[in-house]
C-alpha cells in the first residue's frame, strides 16, 4: 500500500529516459558516419566507452525509480482492526454558489467558511463527519467518515466551480445530507448548513421539518452582511441581464426558520467566531452514538529505504568512469 500513490506516475518517465538516450546515441552515430568510418573514429577516441554511457543511464533510471517509489511512501505491516468509537455524526452542507465569493469576510465568504470547518475538524475526536456541497443542486463531497486527514484534503479542493449548476438549493442539500448518515446512526445526528441563505430553488423550511421528524437536528450558520455586498467574478463585479451590479444579502429570516423547524439553532458567522464552535458544543450535549468500524493500523513506513537506495545508485552513476563523474548524464564528448 502507498500513502501517496500518485507519485508512482513518475515511473512512466523511466522508459522515456531510456528511449531518449537511445535516440541521442543513434543521432551521435549518424554524425560520426558523416566524418568517416565508425571503427576509425572509435580508434581515434580510445578513452570513450560506449558501454559506460549505457551503464550510467541505467543506474540513473534505477535511482530515479527508487526515488519515485520513496515519494509514494510505501507502507507495510498494516492490519485490519475492529474498533469501537463513540461520538456524533455531523454532515456539513457548504454553499459554493457564486454569492459566496462576496468579500464581507476576509478574503471571501467561502474561504472563511472552509477555514472554520478545517478548525472544527481539528477538534473532532471519535465523531464522524461528512461534507455536502451545494449551489443549484447538491452532492456528497465526502461520505461520513472518521478520516479527518481526508476530510481536510477534500475541503481544500472545494471552490465555486465544484457544482456546475448555479443557484442556492438549501432544501435539496438538507435532504441529501439526511440520506448520507450511516445505518448505525440513530441518536446523535446533526446537519450544519453554512450559507448566505439566499435560497432560489426550493423550500428549505419544509426540508428541515421533514428531516427533524426522523430525529436529525438542523443547525444553520448565516454567512454575509445584511446590507449586502457585490460579487467579484472574473476580475469584475457580477451583473444581471440589465447590466446592474448584483448585490448578495444575508437572508437571516429563512435560516432562523430552518433552524427552528430543524430543532437546531441559528448562528450569524462573525469575523472572529464563525459560529461552528458553539454549534459543536451543542451537538456534544446529545447522547453519544457508538460505532463499530474496521480500520487499518500499525503501518510501517518504508520510504527511507528507497531514498537510501536512490542515493546509492545516483552516486554510483557519477562514479562510473573517472572522467564521467563531473559530466552531465548524456554528455559523451
Describe this structure in words.
The chain has helices spanning 13-35, 38-44, 50-71, 109-123, 148-156, 170-178, 204-212, 252-261, 276-283, 303-319, and strands at residues 75-76, 79-87, 89-95, 128-134, 138-145, 189-195, 217-222, 229-230, 232-233, 236-237, 247-248, 266-268, 289-297, 300-301. With 333 residues, the chain is α/β, with parallel strands linked by helices. A 6-stranded mixed beta sheet has the order 5-4-3-6-7-12, with helices on both faces. Strands 1-14 form a two-stranded antiparallel ribbon. The longest helix is centred in the N-terminal third of the chain and has 23 residues, at 13-35. The chain is elongated and about 90 Å long.
Short description:
It contains ten helices and 14 strands. It is an alpha/beta fold and 333 residues long.
Q: What's the alpha carbon Rg, rounded to whole Å?
A: 30 Å
Number of helices: 10
Main beta sheet strand tally, sense and closure: 6 strands, mixed
Taking pLDDT < 50 over at least 5 consecutive residues as the criterion, the unreliable ranges are 324-330
- Got a strand count? 14
Q: Could you report the average pLDDT, rounded to the nearest whole number?
A: 84
